[in-house]
Predict the 3D structure of the following.
Amino acid sequence: MPTSNRPLVLLLVASGLLVTSGSVSAASPPNVILFATDDLCDWVGPMGHTQAVTPNLDRLARSGVTFTNAQSPGTFCAPSRTAIFTGQYASTTGCYTTQVYFHEKPELLPLQASFQQAGYATYGAGKLFHHPAGYIDQRGWNEFYLRTEKQRQEGWPLDSWGDGTPIPQPYPNSRYNQGRVPANRFFLEWGPVPDELEEEMADTIRTNWACEVLGREHEKPFFLAVGLYAPHFPNYAPQKYFDLYDTSKIKAPPYKDNDLDDLPPKIRRQKIARRKQHHERLVEIGAVEDAIHGYLASVTYADAMLGRVLDALEVSPHADNTLIVFWSDHGYHHGEKGDWGKHTLWERTSNVPFIWAGPGVAKNQSVDATVSLIDIYPTFAERCNLPTKNDLEGVSQAAVLENPSTAQDRDVFLPYLTPGAYAIINQDWRYIRYDDGTEELYDTQHDPNEWRNLAGREDRSEIKASMRAQAPASFAPAGASRDRLQLVLDKQDYHWRTKLPRDQ
């Protein structure tokens, strides 16, 4: 169990390190930084996006390998992070939505515990798991950093926008929410925070803690994971990051007016009823570019936090033997297919930044072969000699990191929110199947915006059958969702219990 409130650096998701390439011997296992972001789509410099100002991600990419066709293993925070930390898809764990994997399957060895068993000191902070109370897997951490004692007593909620963290004034601040009754609490909220308050922001505090951990002397290899909430809504960032962009020059992604017309009836109705209204309102008030401005400012703020970690690593004693991986749990729609959000099986939800750097990793290389973030666990298992006990479902990318020319494309699985619904993705095609048996198929080489659903064409039946055969033969039933669980607090610890009928 965690023993200290001092900042610890465990960067597992989105992090960067400039180090000398070379093999790592068994006698000198690499340190690991896992740096994670939330809702970061492919709008970053290393993935060819020209609007985003991401100098530190560019810097990390020059020192390592960027997987440009990396796919999330889940369609929103909880299932994606569960898959990453367990090495198993929702079709195996039953964690399709808000299930708690260590309640459902306590026998699963989470990534940090695997590192700890391998002799690593393990440190964590920020959004590595889902953000509400009770979702941080407490097992396997030497230290997990929380900003306040209140968080520690209340089930370790992330609480990024409370307890003294600054928000723009007036609140709500975005054009979307000003004057709305009721206004959204944080969805489609954006605005600048005074620069002088940057050090009081939750993500800044967590980053500074990670930098302090990097500056320590360590007697054993360390696993340092730090997760940012940015650029998740609300898109609150210091004014200076907003000032890097001119709203009048921001370009929205391409939209197609009748984009939803060729979707299966059920998903079309859902998108029209629940999501498209947000895009229509933004268009109506002329705020699409403003909303994108807020997102881009938050992306650059997250990039600046990565820069702090890179700087701290460069001047630390650990610079030559630290492996870094940067990732986002999933992407984000900005009006594409009428959506602002995630929770879809389309490209804007699934394609994410995925960058590795450090000893044994080639420099300044890009790989276009399709991979999944579920590959993180098996890659670490090979590179760091972890005693994994799970049946890992990803593919180790250790050989590709050393020699990117060996990369081969493969079909990648992405489960949806219910058993039996999924996507199969490769360089050329995206096949989608919903739990009612309806389908979508996109030729992504010729239709990168996924505007033409080809599932109904007879001449594509063999492609559909081939990709459908890559899905699991069976799907685990969904476990107990959050509304069927009760969080039980015990001082600084907690556990879940399934509600009895009288509790519901």
Summary: The two ends are 31 Å apart (CA to CA).
